[in-house]
Amino acid sequence: MRRFLENSIALLVVVIVLFLIIPLPKSLLDVLLVVNISLSILILMITMTISDALEFSIFPSLLLITTLFRLGLNVSTTRRILGFGGDAGNVILAFGQMITQGNIILGVIIFLIIVLVQFIVITKGAERVAEVAARFTLDAMPGKQMAIDADLSSGLIDEQGAKLRRAKIQKEADFYGAMDGATKIVKGDAIMSLIITAVNFIGGLILGVTMSGMDFNTAIQTYSIATIGDGLVSQLPALMISTATGMIVTRSVSDGSLNNDVISQFAAQPKAIFTSGIVIGLLGLIPGTPTVPLLIVGTGLSGGGWWMMGRLERKEVQAAAAEAAAAAAPQEAPQQPSEADYYKDINNVYTLLTVDPIEMEFGYSLLPMVDEKGGGKLINRIIIFRRQYAQEMGFVIPSIRFHDTSTLGTNQYAVKIKGEEVARGEILVDYYLALEPATPTGEIDGIETVEPAYGIPSRWILPENKEMAEIYGYTVIDPLSVMQTHLSEVIRSHAYELLGRAEVVQLVENLKRTAPEVVEEAIPNVLTYAHLERILKNLLKEGVPIRDLGTILETAVDALATTKDLDMVTENVRAALSRTITRRFCEHGQLRVVTLDAEVEKRVISSLSKNEQGIYLAMGPDLMQQIVTQLSEFIKKFNDLSQTPIVLTSQVIRIYLSRMLSQFYPNLYVLAFNEITSDVQIQSLGNITLVGQGRSDRKAAAV
Predict the structure, then answer these.
(1) Which residues, in sequence order, are CB contacts of 309 under 8 Å at separation 6+?
(2) What is the distance between the alpha carbons of residues 224 and 231, in angstroms, rounded to a whole number?
(3) Banded model confidence at residue 329, pLDDT cuts 50, 70, 90
(4) What is the pLDDT of residues 553-607, one digit of tens each?
């Protein structure tokens, strides 16, 4: 029984297809016609009560099944009409008589109006809406992906939340793409209904007069009622399904069901309702107009609007009273000593020598975003980001010192690492930042700028233009998120500078709680804190998490038995962290990379030199220029795909090539083949080759 239920839909589709071939008895046909009408009403009700189109993601497939079901019934009813003298069952007869009511011409006209409304208005409109929704959804995908990455880097969401949001975006794209195609089925169904109606009527007349011996008037009476009844029985469900199609593709800007949205949004405009009622009532006083209906409707609208205005005013008074009651009495701030008195104590002067790991300075206009007492949320977001970054990278970000300064503009902020400025930005508090898509569908007014974290062309727009910007494909971000994302990216890129000896000791002490034997074997007998700090900095500098500190220590101890070169030790550690590196850079089981030609790798290996300081890369300028120039073209492909640029090479030259390329492309990552797990599908976007035989490397560039 369970297996039958699991395959019931597939069996149902097979049965529906058989309707096109197997004749159905009249009683069963009546039941199936009622089921068809009921199913269409059910689908329409579902589309009006959902708040998100993905809540009814089976709709495109269901649309195909219901259309096939309806066409199967059409074939069966046509067989009954033409083969049994217009006797197609009680349901069709009842609908035909209800429409015609003894007047065949009136019935035909009403039926044609219903069919044309279905075909020209509902079906064509739903088809156009689906096309536009599919195009806008696909165009907005890169911007939505960047918004998810921004929220993830700022700590607003974790990895699991980012995966869920990415999956939803993919489902939306698949859904609206399927709806774009499914609406063509609705259009074809409407056309087919007209053809079947014509076949039933013309074919019935011919068969009735020539084969059944009916006179012409009797044939027209019999087959017109049957044809109109059959057409109406099929067109009513088709009309409701078409309406449901239009409903479901227009739910993108809804926060609730259609019922809730209509009631809440009309109730929010009581003045408009009241004014409309007054205007309708005044029209009723004009001589010659239908006074009674206009006065009834005008009175109802104006009365309802007046009642809703009073209700809104009462709510505002209650909210104001609650806010006044919750406001605390102002307290006098404790008197602070003057600056001269404070620095009379020589110990206080030493506080000026302290260098904070991270500082953030603000212009005057940005202070409310930091002040927690005034509702500022920046500190809370940084706390969330610190937790998320610790879980992701295994390193706890030090405390950040905030303070205002007069050296910056009122809308500017600056980020300092160990006392030196490394980044600066400017935001407009009362605006939104709209990131420009690759192909915007419309132009939005705003102040042109560049997004500070990723350098994306953007515009500062007014809040009232936010919804229109999203419709045009822009990704809209609030000012606080812009600043938080910039700070997060700065911390990520400078994390290796924030890792000092004290932080390394603290990480090791934390590992002692779970793996004391590993720590005792490694430190300080084999590995010093200074050497471990350098290894961890090498990993963080290239975006490799150091959370698995136990594996890092064990691998470092084993590697130091064969080499004292900490760079080579780091490479061995990276190989041991292959799963971590794969997870860090791989998306959906795929890794898009750029590779090096075998001849290029040989040239790079031959450029390696050794001195007392260790191994370094002495590459000729011709080879360096060829690699850098070709990479610039491949990086454009990565940017189009909204992915991190990655170069895949052998372990022998990975670290030296990475150091050289980081001077030209700071956001580029160089990975080795042994750092990628075997279950990943590697897709090469290109191969760096030797364009021509360059001159001998007479002038070497030491890296």
Answers:
(1) 270, 271, 274
(2) 10
(3) very low
(4) 999 999 988 888 888 999 999 999 999 999 888 877 888 899 998 888 888 888 8
Q: Is 332 helix (H, G, I), strand (E, B) or coil?
A: coil
381 token code pair = 């977001």
Helices 59-83 and 26-49: crossing angle, nearest 10°?
A: 150
Burial class (CB in 10 A: 0-12, 13-18, 19+), 682: middle
How many CB atoms are closer than 10 A to CB 257?
15
Cβ contact 179:60 at 8 Å: yes
Token pair in block for residue 571: 């490479």
Percentage of residues in the chain having pLDDT higher than 90: 13
The predicted structure's pLDDT at residue 573 = 92
| Cα(147)–Cα(427) distance, integer angstroms | 17
Peptide bond connecting 25 to the previous residue in cis, omega within 30 degrees of 0: no
Question: What phi and psi, each to the nearest 5 degrees, are found at residue 682?
Answer: -95, 125
CB 644 within 8 A of CB 637: no
- For 564-573, the CB contacts below 8 A with 24+ separation are 565/614, 565/615, 566/531, 566/534, 566/535, 566/538, 567/538, 567/614, 567/615, 567/655, 569/535, 570/535, 570/538, 570/539, 570/655, 571/651, 571/654, 571/655, 571/672, 573/535, 573/539
Q: How confident is the model at residue 538 (pLDDT cuts 50, 70, 90)?
A: very high
Beta sheet of 646-649, edge-to-edge order: 669-672, 646-649, 590-596, 681-688
First-to-final CA distance of the chain: 71
> What CA–CA distance (Å, rounded) separates 643 from 669?
11
| Degrees, nearest 5: CA angle 661-664-667 | 80
Confidence of residue 671 (pLDDT cuts 50, 70, 90): very high
CB 116 within 8 A of CB 193: no
pLDDT digits (tens, 9 = 90+) for 85-138: 667 677 777 777 776 666 667 777 777 777 777 667 666 666 666 666 666 666
The edge-to-edge listing of strands for the beta sheet with 608-611 is 608-611, 614-619, 701-702
Report pLDDT digits (tens) over 357-368: 899 999 888 888
Angle between helices 104-116 and 216-248 (to 10 degrees): 20
Q: List all residues 6 or more positions away from 286 whose beta carbon is below 8 Å from its beta carbon.
A: none
